[in-house]
Amino acid sequence: MQALDPRGVTTAEEFVVLLRRVRDRSGLSYRTIAKRAELAGAVLPASTLATMLARQTLPRRELVTAVLTACEVPPAAVRQWIAVWERLAEGTKPATVEDPEPVERPFQLPPAPPVLVGRDDELDRLAEGLAQPPGVWLLTGAGGVGKSALAVLAAHRAAGRHPGGCLYVDLRGASADAAPSEPHDVLLGFLRALGVRTAPATVDEASALFRSTTADRAMLVVLDNAGSAAQVRPLLPSGPRSTTLVTSRWRLPDLDVTRRLAVEPLPAPAGRELLAHLCGPERVAAEAAAAGDIVRLCGGSPLALRIVGARAAGRQAPGILGALAAHLGDHARHLDELEVGDLSVRAGLRVGYRSLQADIAASVFRLAAVPEWIELGAAACAAMLDTPPVAVERALDLLVDAHLVECPAPGRFRYHDSVRIFAREQAEAVDPPAVRLAVRERLAAVMFSAAASAARSLFPHDPLPYAELGGTAQRLIAPDATTAQAWQWLEQERVNLRMLAGQEFAAGRALPAIRDLGVAVAKYLDYAGHFVDQARLGQLAIAAARRLGDQRGTAQALNTLAIAMLRHERRREGIELLDQALAIRRELGDRAGEAACLNNLGNAHRDNGDLDAALRCLERSLALRKELSDQYKTGSTLDNIGIVLRRMGRFEEALDHHRAGLAITRELDDRLREALVLTNLAETEQLAGQRREALGHAERALAISRELRHDRGCGLALQLLGDIYTSLGQSARARACQDEAAELLHEPAIGAPTPIAG
Description:
InterPro entries: AAA+_ATPase (IPR003593), P-loop_NTPase (IPR027417), TPR-like_helical_dom_sf (IPR011990), TPR_rpt (IPR019734). The termini are far apart. Helices cover about 60% and strands about 5% of the residues. It is built from 36 helices and ten strands. The protein is elongated. By secondary structure, it is mainly alpha-helical. Helix 34 runs antiparallel to helix 35 and helix 35 (about 710-725) packs antiparallel against helix 36 (about 730-745). The strands form three sheets. It has a five-stranded parallel β-sheet, with helices on both faces. A three-stranded antiparallel β-sheet has the order 8-10-9, sandwiched between helices.
């Protein structure tokens, strides 16, 4: 880095600005510079240095020399600086070469953290804000996220702009083993540090004296670990040159502040960097996968990563990161692994939990963690707790304020893994088993019932199995929900449905509902492209049906899983499952079920390249559905036959079948299916050379899919539009469509035609 050259400086103010840049470039704290100066035989207190660099007048010569030497400026360059100082001093009245004012300038900041990764953006925002007093900055975040380290480092960097001094106190508002600091005691300590020898008897008197004492000073006050707004208010200076930095694990909505800064967990790259610093980059590189698991399981918490890093640093055996990752992944050991010395994630969570003065908030915190879910709405929480929604919403707000649950979107809530494990520990200690069981049963029942209601809204013509799902009055989706609303609800809750079904199946409960759930939501999952969830729910449905000894249910569930296998291009497995389902349907004399299996077998054989077998299966399915007067299913089979005929090059016949299927779909007002049939029709038209017709139908399919928020439908239509625009020579529009399609089609079945299952 090129040295700073002072020879062009013409004023004392420019001299100090350049000297401050020397210090900034060095990256040294004021305390470090003071210690280096002391070792060199110079007297340069940190408070004096802060005052000197904040002024616009020429400092004393020996202080300039001490700063430059401590910042490792070469001797020849120091001589240049002193020559410039002498030139400026000769043209300046002696009175302007000032000594520090004879007043107390405390510097109470703890040492700056030696390493702080992943916080550059926050430090930049704080540096900008702290350079413009007055103001009150509030840093909030979960316990262990690094608020204090961030505040202390930012304060060290801003100290030079606050020559009145730096005050610091740990208010112990989040301490597991000590009572919160009393504002009166804190104020008396501040006043003593400022040279005030009187001791006001009350907090109001002490607060008033503190404000008077600091009124003309440029002070920086750091109030760390605040427990409440009431604890903070008496400690705020009110002078026009002072700034206050407050940290708290609570959001303190009743505290008036200039700016709030939410300190979030570290992103994965920063978490890996911190882990590498703690236990060695070579170890992290050697066990890269395990290191990634540790960062994920720690949720980006610097405290948790510090603990794991300390445990790893003390053990040099190869493979230790893998062992630690495995232990963290075991819920029974997770929190035990996050303790070392006086550092403990569990202890920090206990502080937040004990702060919940309202019984309802503590109860919600414990019991809402008992069922399996990833992200849930307030209405579902109220249903599972059998508690009025208003009370539950208020409790959730308190939990969010305490950073015990997260609010990723309005009305949606989630736990961090460590917090969920802690909450379950508290539930097991406090709530009887019958209460915990009732919570799980209520949530599963109300969610399964809502899923049935949503599926009815999406597919009103499908005779899906709802009997075991709709027995509970559900409050989560309106009975007359639109297609878009039903789709959105299932998009939000599909992972929760799978997790709840898995939890209930493992406990041997709700088997009929689990059997029917896999079938009821299968078509939605297929249309949406969520093939992993489709497969897992299909597997659960098969297992539940077999445990119940239900042959018909087994056949339905085999069909669900088979479609998921086909979407994953595991065609041989899909065909085997469909053959099993077909045999059961025929044994039971279930002609509608037989037609459904034949429809899906036709699609499977087509994708496997056996077009003749595909056409035979689909034509047999079509005949059965016409005999049964099943107009809805007839429309889907007609469209699927059109895809096979297209593959055979029989375009006119294919178009006739697509159009016949489209007419039925429109007659029944099934807009989801209409969009898919339009896409299939447009693809056949494109291959038949009817590009303008294909363009119109593909654009109509895209418009319907966008209206219904059907991402996969949008992706398929956009993919086809890209091909059509390419053939029309419109490369820019083609590229835009293809890029957007690539973002939407992220499942294994990208590029596959869209046969209609069932």
